């Protein structure tokens, strides 16, 4: 809904309730509370753990008393891609949301079973309600669950209102006009936290659990969750940390501070993409320092990518397990538990790879370039199935976002058919990004006293307790490239690639201006080196 329609609909709602538009908020709330015919608006929070700029909550509040609900679904949390670090972030965010709601005298109902029994309980209690949520682009589990919820709603005569919450467009025909949809959504006004009215009564449900039922998750303190933490993160990035973002994002020595670190907040919706975009754009419009301008432009294009990649999963849910380009199903990558275990525990014998993996394990985050390198090593040099390595990384990343994750994993594993093949040489990456070996020594303590030259040349590195390289890098890379190239020479390769591009390929870069831009003819005209990379990638 655009802003004018939203305002119109809220005025209609007020008229429907028989209020004069000039009534102040408190009187208005009082009238809503006393209206016996107003039915309950059940707001099911999923990946939108905030009150501000939350279209589902905002619109629900226009229709009557609101009951906020979050369900800690055991089935979801026992999926192989779920982990304690995701739960910790989610739990922090729920506490924060609970507090924000409490300030308005509102509860946050927590369900600890699957959603359908929770809905059954609420239906028995209230007789009827309208269900509100955002449109979720999640993994296959949430996709199937939403299909079931939709059937449940039909069976019980319940209306389920799902609202978009980012740039992802549901039931999109093709990608041709997607960028202008994105611009429109991002440039619409953000919505204030609504004034909420609780129902007269609600059922007692258990408090927020220590851990989801059926899991053995232990608390793992890493990046804190919650909207307040998200706002602090955004403020510090825009005030200071982001100045050198464009140049400092590539090395793990600098990226932890220079990248925004907003990804888990966008993933759990403690901040909306639109509010982050608008804050960055406002800063860009007032910024004259060249460093800042370039950094902010790069950052804004990544917010566009966020939705661009999620849109791929929205349009092709099977990409979580099936190669995007069907011919890559023929590659003979096979599972190997021992190789996977050495890669995922940081014992490959390539110091820079091991340092990145161990840093990721400890912190729950690593920068884009290193994610790409870790994936490239697993998929090319170690020839592991991308589904296996992708699942390990999904559990390690606090910011695991299925749409971005699986699209990126496939891209870095060469299975999309529309992106240039990039086989990272981890020794060169180490030399370029950690020339003095600081990062390696920090995260691979066995190598603290090893000579610098050996840190970047594992063939001459001999340290007790540290393994020799798992394979010969050059030979493994060559073999992998040959196998991928053979698929590229298949007679149907280009025809099938065109289909992939039509459905999933990017047409245009992100707008960094409030003015409407004409779509570029080539769709890739961007001077930002990282964005140029994206034009290859997507
Ligand atoms: C193999 C692989 C897996 C990845 N898995 C995830 C994932 O599960 N969740 C996730 O959020 N990102 C993922 N990324 C993308 C990217 O690495 C992270 O978004 C980024 O590192 C998050 O840090 P930040 O918030 O500081 O990002 P910033 O650089 O500050 O960017 C701001 C925001 O833009 C978005 N963004 C940035 N880079 C990308 C990108 N390349 N593609 C799509 N969106 C982007 C993110 O939402 C990010 O929070 C993956 C990348 C690779 C190569």
UniProtKB/TrEMBL annotation:
Record's keyword annotation contains Cytoplasm: no
Domain Photolyase/cryptochrome alpha/beta: start-end pairs: 39-168
SUPFAM superfamilies tied to this protein: Cryptochrome/photolyase FAD-binding domain (SSF48173), Cryptochrome/photolyase, N-terminal domain (SSF52425)
Entry-linked PANTHER family: CRYPTOCHROME, CRYPTOCHROME CIRCADIAN CLOCK 5 ISOFORM X1
Protein name: Deoxyribodipyrimidine photo-lyase family protein (Cryptochrome)
Any one biological process term the GO annotation gives: response to light stimulus
Entry's cofactor comment: Binds 1 FAD per subunit.
A molecular-function term among this protein's GO annotations: DNA binding
Cofactor(s) this protein requires: FAD; (6R)-5,10-methylene-5,6,7,8-tetrahydrofolate
Residues noted as binding FAD in the record, renumbered to the chain: 245, 299
Keywords: FAD, Flavoprotein, Lyase
Polar residues bias: start-end ranges: 525-538
Positions of region (Disordered): 498-538
């Amino acid at each position: 809904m655009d802003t004018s329609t939203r305002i119109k609909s809220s005025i209609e709602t007020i008229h429907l309730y028989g209020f004069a538009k000039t009534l102040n908020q408190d009187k208005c709330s009082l009238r809503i509370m006393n209206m016996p015919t107003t039915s309950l608006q059940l707001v099911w929070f999923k990946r939108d753990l905030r009150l501000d700029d939350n279209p589902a909550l905002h619109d629900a509040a226009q229709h009557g008393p609101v009951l906020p609900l979050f369900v800690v679904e055991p089935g979801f949390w026992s999926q192989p891609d779920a982990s304690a670090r995701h739960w910790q972030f989610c739990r922090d965010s729920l506490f924060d949301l609970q507090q924000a709601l409490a300030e308005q005298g509102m509860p946050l109902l927590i369900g600890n079973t699957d959603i359908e029994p929770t809905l059954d309980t609420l239906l028995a209690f209230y007789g009827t309600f309208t269900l509100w949520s955002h449109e979720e682009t999640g993994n296959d589990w949430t996709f199937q669950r939403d299909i079931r919820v939709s059937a449940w709603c039909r069976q019980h005569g319940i209306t389920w209102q799902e609202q978009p919450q980012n740039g992802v467009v549901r039931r999109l025909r093709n990608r041709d006009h997607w960028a202008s949809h994105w611009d429109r959504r991002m440039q619409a006004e953000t919505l204030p936290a609504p004034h909420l009215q609780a129902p007269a009564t609600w059922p007692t449900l258990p408090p927020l659990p220590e851990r989801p039922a059926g899991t053995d998750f232990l608390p793992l303190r890493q990046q804190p969750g919650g909207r307040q933490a998200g706002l602090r993160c955004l403020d510090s990035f825009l005030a200071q940390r982001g100045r050198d973002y464009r140049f400092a994002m590539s090395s793990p020595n600098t990226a932890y501070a220079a990248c925004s670190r907003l990804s888990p907040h966008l993933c759990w919706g403690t901040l909306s993409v639109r509010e982050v975009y608008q804050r960055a754009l406002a800063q860009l419009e007032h910024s004259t320092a060249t460093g800042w301008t370039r950094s902010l432009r790069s950052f804004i294009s990544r917010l566009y990518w966020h939705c661009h990649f999620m849109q791929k999963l929205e349009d092709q849910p099977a990409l979580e397990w099936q190669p995007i380009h069907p011919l890559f199903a023929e590659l003979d990558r096979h599972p190997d538990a021992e190789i996977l275990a050495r890669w995922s525990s940081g014992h490959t014998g390539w110091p820079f790879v091991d340092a990145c993996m161990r840093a990721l394990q400890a912190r729950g985050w690593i920068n884009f370039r290193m994610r790409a390198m870790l994936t490239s090593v697993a998929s090319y040099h170690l020839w592991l199935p991308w589904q296996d390595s992708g699942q390990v990384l999904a559990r390690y990343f606090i910011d695991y976002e299925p749409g971005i994750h699986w699209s990126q994993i496939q891209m870095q594993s060469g299975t999309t058919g529309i992106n240039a093949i990039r086989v990272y040489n981890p020794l060169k990456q180490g030399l370029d990004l950690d020339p003095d070996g600081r990062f390696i020594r920090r995260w691979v303590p066995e190598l603290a006293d090893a000579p610098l030259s050996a840190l970047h040349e594992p063939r001459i590195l001999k340290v007790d307790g540290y393994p020799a390289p798992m394979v010969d890098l050059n030979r493994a890379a060559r073999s992998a490239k040959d196998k991928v190239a053979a698929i590229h020479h298949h007679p149907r390769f280009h025809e099938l690639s065109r289909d992939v591009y039509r459905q999933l390929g990017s047409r245009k870069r992100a707008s960094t201006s409030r003015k409407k831009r004409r779509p570029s003819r080539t769709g890739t005209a961007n001077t930002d080196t990282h964005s140029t990379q994206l034009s290859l990638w997507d």
